[in-house]
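Bench notes, afternoon.
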Amino acid sequence: MGIIRKTLNTLILGGAGGVGSFAFWTRNSKFVPIAADDPIFSSAAYLRNNPNKNPQTKDLCVRKVELSKIKPQLLEKEGEGKLVEAFCAGVWGGIGYAYQRRYLEKKYRNSTTTAHQLWSTPELLSSSYDVGTQITDHFEVVSKTPSSIIVRCGDSPLKTGVRDSDGLFEMGVKINREEGVAEFRLKSIFYKGLGTATAPPMPSHVEFAHRLYTKLWMESAVRNVVM
């Protein structure tokens, strides 16, 4: 929570125009309910790492962009493959993640255990985010399809077993050529992996801050796919 608060203070409260400008900038990013039968709840990563089916804190942020505004090279082939990779790259290589990336780099980057992970902005912007890719010692790609990339979060990817704090973060894209739009989706699922919990892992004020952070990531990521 500390890193989220510092990021928001730096990029929102400390920025020109403050909260009002942030609200206007992110006005097209909307939160919608996650279906109870969403495939993420039956994924191997979720079932393995939440063995006691503990309650989750979850949200889904959606942002639509006209296809005419998207870089043409990302739409040259059928499907969303190139577009979802660029969207994912925009999350990790964009301004929304910059403060957290620098914080984690100072704390965890080294020449032995984390040298294989993505750290620099050029690396983050150019990666294709294949399964197994590790990001700043805090995220690891656990699933990749033509329309979505899912990373595990909550702790270092070097800790492969069930964790006390765990979660999944999905970046997805759906192209609707009839409407002429691409729908970008950021889905978050957080839960306690170890032991048994009776309540979701985030209190309401932390969940509120996380949603602001998600909107920041969304707008930052969309900047990487538009002209």
